[in-house]
Amino acid sequence: MENKGQHKADLSEVNQTTNDVIKSIINKRAHIQEKFNKVNEKLDKLKAEADKLLHPEKS
Q1: Residue 52 near residue 59 (C-beta atoms within 8 A)
Q2: pTM recorded for the entire structure
Q3: Residue 58 and residue 51 in contact, taking contact as beta carbons nearer than 8 Å
Q4: Hey, what's the torsion of the CAs at 8, 14, 19, 20, to 10 degrees?
């Protein structure tokens, strides 16, 4: 019967490891999304500045 108990403990460790990996992936995705948003904001600002420089009559 000890074998079943060990098997359950092993499954618990696997589940915990899987949960940790999933949480890590979610955190990394959130971090990447945050950086992506910042880059897009900077890009929008640069586009606006470029438009002002290239087409000053529209400003």
Answers
A1: yes
A2: 0.66
A3: yes
A4: 130
Q: Where are the alpha helices (DSSP H) in the chain?
A: 2-54
State which amino acid sits at residue 1: M
**CB under 8 A, 24+ apart: contacts of 15-20:** none
Is residue 44 within 8 Å of 37, Cβ to Cβ?
no
Is the pLDDT higher at 32 or at 5? 32
Q: Rounded distance, CA 48 to CA 29, Å? A: 28
Q: How many angstroms from the chain centroid is the CA of residue 8?
A: 32
- pLDDT confidence of residue 4: 66
Confidence of residue 58 (pLDDT cuts 50, 70, 90): low
Domain definitions of the chain by residue range: 2-58
The residues, ordered by sequence, that sit 6+ positions from 51 with a Cβ below 8 Å of its Cβ are: 58, 59
